[in-house]
Design a protein that fits this description.
Arp2/3 complex 21 kDa subunit ARPC3; two-stranded antiparallel sheet; 4% strand
Length: 225
Amino acid sequence: MKTYRYLDLITATFVVVLIVSNISSTKVVLFGPFTFDGGTLLFPLAYIFGDILTEVYGYKKARRVIWTGFFLLLLTTLSLGLVNALPAPSDEVSQKYSEAFSTLLGLVPRIVLASLVAYWVGGFVNSYIVARLKVITSGRWLALRTTASTIVGQGLDTAIFLLIAFYGVWDNSLLWTVFVSNYVFKVGVEVLFTPLTYTVVGFLKRAEQEDCFDRSTNFNPFSAR
């Protein structure tokens, strides 16, 4: 089996971005004209890493990384939930920190479910589109592939997350405002980072001696082969 110099580093960075962005999503922030959850500031990088993984290493390697991120995100949320459920000492300081922890990191099951489902759907759709368009375009027009995959993947990710997490909780007008802000910002970051994506992809293809085309790949996300 071929070994790669940078795949483990990219996988680790991808998972860290995914986990940190999900923890940061507990706060809604204002950023210029945008209104969105704090995780949106970092989460677009997860899709950029997804594009790079699929473009260089192929869908099968990206599938493995997506599942790795899914299970480690699940482990994170379960760990935080367990810590939050355990009682704190009765002294005033411990109780104060316990309340703060519960407020910030005592994740609501509905939000956890929303994060996991949205990430899973968006991640696989994004990777699939990159892989299929690469074959269709014979490896040309990387910017088209990354932008198109982000438009669809981020759209599904954002819509699924907000509907599962906040439909019926937030006013519909706020829900729509946050969706538009999230979506425009995420796609904008992808487009803005396109030159860097080109640079990283070019470097990895040369360093790894790899440029995978998924011409006969089984795109079933549950396939272990």
